[in-house]
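Design job #97: recover the sequence.
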């Protein structure tokens, strides 16, 4: 006798055939073995309906079929690291550098055939999801998830290991309301918050512009925020979390960069390379650069701290003194 088990997934119906003699079927008092197996399967399915699983496909089931006259248009598309570039042409590198796992993309349409695009990205960790979200953030807003930003019909937010983008363009008041309802539905389906990158807590809070805080572990993103070098002079990689923040003092702004290394020897090597190649070997770790701005370097244990574009040497020393490693 063989038993046919049908599991319905969003993207493809799958049927698995197994022989009853090849598996150990559970026995439940008063039920034959096959009935016990079916009962157990139903229990698993019912439990899965009460909370989000680790499967990103579950978001499609959680989201409403209709909302304020907007309906799910089609079955969603699923993207992996192998095919993400076919969806985000030229932008996949950002997500891949933050440990991208997979993404779910779906649309809602209204009777006039207007569209709202919903993209849910599962990243490698909660800090990575924050990193993608904060990459271009310009404001502080906590209405959705663990932090969000809304502008011109685009809502982005992060929660736990997920980064979410919901776009309704051109923007209208009606679309904006639906976008936020969808955002709240997705955020509510993610049952727990995730941790912020620990290194951003090392940035001194005084005079910090919080909307400018960035987190990354690929050197190319440092240059997109504040150009340092075409080379990876600080040896930033997957095992070296980095944070960058902009500070404002007396009408001037400057950056503080922090890089945490696996050990003090790697931190020292990175610091020495930076000192040699960008500070002309300055023994005190400071040097005036273009337009009279100052750059400073401090190595302390496994942490390298660099001040960029400071107005003077005392400012560099003062911010270094506030860093608590």
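Job complete. Output follows.
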């Amino acid at each position: 006798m063989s038993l046919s088990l049908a599991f319905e997934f969003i993207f493809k119906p799958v049927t698995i055939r197994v022989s009853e003699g090849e598996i150990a079927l559970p026995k439940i008092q008063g039920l034959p073995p096959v009935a016990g197996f079916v009962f157990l399967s139903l229990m698993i399915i019912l439990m899965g309906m009460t909370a989000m699983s680790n499967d990103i496909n579950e978001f499609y089931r959680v989201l409403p079929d209709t909302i304020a006259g907007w309906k799910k248009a089609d079955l969603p598309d699923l993207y992996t690291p192998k095919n993400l570039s076919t969806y985000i042409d030229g932008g996949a590198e950002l997500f891949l550098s933050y440990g991208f796992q997979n993404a779910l993309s779906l649309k809602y349409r209204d009777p006039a055939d207007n569209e709202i695009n919903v993209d849910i990205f599962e990243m490698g960790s909660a800090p990575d999801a924050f990193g993608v979200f904060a990459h271009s953030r310009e404001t502080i807003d906590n209405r959705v998830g663990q932090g969000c930003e809304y502008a011109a019909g685009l809502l982005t937010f992060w929660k736990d290991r997920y980064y979410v983008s919901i776009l309704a363009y051109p923007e209208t008041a009606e679309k904006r309301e639906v976008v936020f309802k969808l955002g709240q539905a997705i955020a509510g389906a993610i049952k727990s918050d995730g941790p912020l990158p620990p290194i951003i807590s090392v940035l001194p809070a005084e005079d910090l512009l919080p909307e400018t805080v960035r987190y990354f572990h690929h050197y190319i993103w440092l240059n997109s925020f504040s150009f340092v070098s075409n080379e990876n002079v600080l040896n930033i990689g997957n095992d070296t979390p980095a944070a960058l923040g902009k500070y404002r003092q007396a009408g001037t702004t400057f950056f503080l960069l922090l890089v945490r290394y696996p050990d003090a020897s790697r931190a020292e090597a990175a610091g020495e390379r930076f000192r040699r190649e960008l500070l002309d070997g300055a023994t005190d770790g400071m040097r005036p650069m273009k337009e009279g701005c100052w750059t400073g370097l401090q190595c302390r244990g496994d942490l390298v701290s660099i001040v960029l574009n400071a107005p003077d040497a005392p400012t560099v020393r003062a911010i270094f003194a506030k860093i608590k490693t």
